[in-house]
Amino acid sequence: MQVPKLTIGQFTFDKPIVQGAMGVRISSYPLPPMVANLGGWGMITTIGLGGDEAVHRDYPRISNEALVAEIERCCQLSTKPMAVNVMGALSNVNDLIDTAVRSGIKIVVYGAGIPLDLPKLVPDLSVNLVPIVSSARLVRIILSRWAKKYQRLPAAFVLEGPLAGGHLGFNQYELDHPEIFNLKNILAEVLAVVRPYEQMFGQKIPVIVAGGILIADVPYWLSLGAAAVQLGTLFVMTDECPAAPEFKQAYLEAKPEDVHIIHSPVGLLGRVIHSPFLDKVAAGQVKIECPYHCITSCEIKTARFCIARALYNAKLGLLDDGLIFAGANVHLMDRIIPVSQLMAEIIEGIEASPLSLPS
After folding, report:
1. What three-state secondary structure class fits 328?
2. Which of 107, 134, 220, 341 would be a feasible disulfide site paired with 169, CB 3.0-4.6 Å?
3. Where, if anywhere, are coiled coils annotated (predicted)?
4. Does residue 285 have a pLDDT over 70?
């Protein structure tokens, strides 16, 4: 198979490889610029960059300052285009988007929410807007709204399937019926919805697939019409990922039965690796504190733990008090390698594949 390039608006990436944005700080510096320098699409996360310095009263200010610092650090290591990823459920999402754009970011990826009026917030046409979606229905809603109200289309979609790690865009029924709700089926539906809009506007809308994808899977997804693959779990298992050694060790030791679906305080299901922290939560031994109120959908009064704090603890390696997000295939992780080796192996697999790109 020929290795396709990925075009997002005015930018072309030599490799069809996207590094997923993983909070809290799991995919922060130096991971995004290293991916970018190797021809992939590096993505800067905005989630939890303020850390312990932020408290409720100054959370927006510290979050903005931390994002500016993160962008500056990444841009010092790479001059290649990188994206900033935001969660629509964040209480300060609009501030973060504005900060990213003012800092020179030209690709904004928007997940955990339906960005019906994102073009109004970012009217600059040189900034490429990329929603994260989980269904053809959501793609249709976004395309229809943007086309009618703003005469504008997304620069791409990231289609996240039910095998992804972290917060999921699927309910329990959908997760329990993978024969219906699987990435292959959803991708075919999304591509069918996208085509008429591509023809109407004379603009390609790349669809990037994500969720449980392994190195050997990449040619298959490209042959089905995906423009690229987004990887999260695989990038955690790289030398450049700044997660603590204990976090990565949990990936190495994970067995299939260690992977669980939990009800997150933010109102979504999430895929995690079992840790002592989950036992403490189940026993009611975790004291809930809300230092930020960072997620608008978080039910503070009924939440059994602060997810921002739990994710930050995990990043630091404090697994007794930490929540470990991971994809469904984390039990297949058996090594930690440099980003350069991971990306080289992906490209070698594409080139050696007997499959072909769709015409």
Report:
1. coil
2. 134
3. none
4. yes
Q: Which helix (H) or strand (E) holds 29?
A: none
Residue 218 structure tokens: 């990449």
Cα 256 off chain centre by: 22
CA distance 244 to 66: 20
Distance CA 33, CA 76 (A): 9
Amino acid in the structure at residue 106: K
Let me know if 335 is exposed, middle or buried by CB neighbors in 10 A (0-12, 13-18, 19+). Answer: exposed
Rounded to two decimals, the pTM is 0.95
Name the percent of the chain lying above pLDDT 90.
83
- Cβ 262 vs Cβ 269: under 8 Å: yes
CA atoms of 34 and 68, how far apart (whole Å): 18
Question: Three-state SS for 247?
Answer: helix
Residue 97 to residue 130: CA distance in whole angstroms: 12
Taking the C-alpha atoms of residue 298 and residue 292, their distance in angstroms, rounded to an integer, is 11
Full set of structural domains in the chain with CATH = 6-242+335-352 (3.20.20.70), 245-325 (no CATH)
Confidence of residue 51 (pLDDT cuts 50, 70, 90): low
How confident is the model at residue 292, as a pLDDT?
67
Strands 166-167 and 207-210: unpaired
Give tens-digit pLDDT for 290-338: 766 787 878 777 788 888 889 999 999 999 999 999 999 999 999 999 9
Nearest to 44 by CA among 54, 52, 55, 36: 36
Cα distances (Å, whole numbers) of residue 143 to 98, 170, 182, 212, 215: 22, 20, 22, 26, 31
Residues in the chain: 359
Do 108 and 128 form a contact (C-beta atoms < 8 A)?
yes
Question: What sign has the CA pseudo-torsion 275, 327, 242, 334?
Answer: positive
| CA dist., res. 39 & res. 42, Å (int) | 9
Distance from C-alpha of 193 to C-alpha of 321, rounded to nearest angstrom: 43
